[in-house]
Amino acid sequence: MSFINPHLISLNENYLFAEIARRAEAFSQENPGVRLLRLGIGDVTLPLAPAVVDALSRAAVEMGSADTFRGYAPYQGYPFLIDAILKTEYAPLGVTLHSDDIFVSDGAKSDTANIQELLSPDAKVAVCDPVYPVYVDSNLMAGRTIVHLPCRAETGFAPALPEIPVKAVYLCSPNNPTGVALTRAQLAEWVAWARAENAVIFYDAAYRTYVESPDAPRSIYEIDGAKEVALEFGSFSKSYGFTGLRCGWAVVPAENRWGLQKPWLRRVATKFNGVAYPVQRAAEAALLPEGHAQSLQNVRYYKENARLLLAALRDAGLTVFGGTDAPYLWVKCPDGLDSWTWFDRLLREKQIVTTPGEGFGACGAGYVRFSSLGGREDVAEAAARIGVQ
Fold first, then answer.
1. pLDDT tens across 88-114, in order?
2. What residues are paired with 148 via a beta bridge?
């Protein structure tokens, strides 16, 4: 067995969401016919916007003709999609980027897992706690030392700056799992820290379209000096319904002080053959006016789901965070229960599937995450069940 990566086999045997699925499936087998309300994993439930489906269909037809067939996509993505990303995702924020700064990918999960390959093996990496498990697991697989930044209720779940030197930090805003977005002042403090410490920020903005608080930036590049020290990751999954199509992008600015754009392109060229042409045409359509308006209707639908859950949970006397700038609600377990115990109780007594906070890190103990990305019928039924003692 010595030829196997020891860092990989030392990870927990079960990925968090795989364990949730296992427990939910076991309950369903023991209780046939009982309908579970799945508010755990953050998968979208609404169909793609009509304009996106039309673009996907037209592109698929193009692939069936010799005159319009396309093979491998450009490593950084087709220019039509890169242009749409710049015009729709950044120009309205007053952010100027260049086409060479954008790398179209198969999703922010892949990018945030792979970006650590830019770092030296001995580089220390800081992550928030609680945190999206991919940041931690991908660095542990590489044998890296992880520095945890506790995020607790008394500080609004904002991480404190690292107390020891690190070369990189992962920030997710709006945050998964807590649903809390960093303010402009908080993000400016992080950019100033990175510039002073010569550290890089990996900024996950997968939930940017859910932000409604006026003081919460949608891009780290709204902060002066961020292009020098930050890489950003965008996603079509939660905003545009692409969880099944897979598309996202990474921003590696040319202004980056370490010249990371060329090494990242070299890594992409070696390990990736690009996102399929029909998917990139669909992504473009999601950013053009018609598809964008249709897709944002879906975002509003999920935000209304969050409002319903937030009201029901608070009416039940529970302490709840998030649910305003993100599709997630971070709920303190009642009666001093631990996360997995309350998860099992919600599963068996309310038939509601959530996500135990302990799966996101030690500071997630005593919380569960609710997702508002389900269908309205399930969310309304869950809200009703929560209110039944």
1. 999 999 999 999 999 999 999 999 999
2. 127
Angle of helix 50-62 relative to helix 289-315, nearest 10 degrees, comes to 130
Which pLDDT score, from 0 to 100, does residue 4 have? 87
Backbone angles phi, psi at 148, to 5 degrees: -95, 135
Cα 322–Cα 93–Cα 370 angle in degrees, nearest 5: 15
Q: Is the peptide bond before 174 cis (omega within 30 degrees of 0)?
A: yes
Structure tokens at 222: 């709204």
CA atoms within 13 A on the CB side of 211: 23
Tokens at 14, concatenated: 């079960």
How far is 13 from 214, CA to CA, in rounded Å? 41
Q: What is the spatial order of strands in the sheet that 367-371 belongs to?
A: 320-322, 328-332, 367-371, 355-356
At position 151, the amino acid (one-letter code) is C
Cis peptide before 130 (omega within 30 of 0): yes
Q: What single string gives the DSSP state of each residue in 292-328?
A: HHHHHHHHHHHHHHHHHHHHHHHHTT--EEESSSSSE
Q: Is the pTM of this model over 0.85?
A: yes
Q: How far is CA 349 from CA 112, 330, 344, in A?
A: 36, 20, 8
Structure token pair of residue 223: 């902060």
- Residue 20 has a CB neighbour count (10 Å cut-off) of 21
H/E stretch holding 370 reads: strand 367-371
Q: Helix (H, G, I), strand (E, B), or coil: what is residue 367?
A: strand
How far, in whole angstroms, is CA 125 from its chain's centroid? Answer: 18
Torsion of CA 97, 103, 105, 108, to 10 degrees: -50
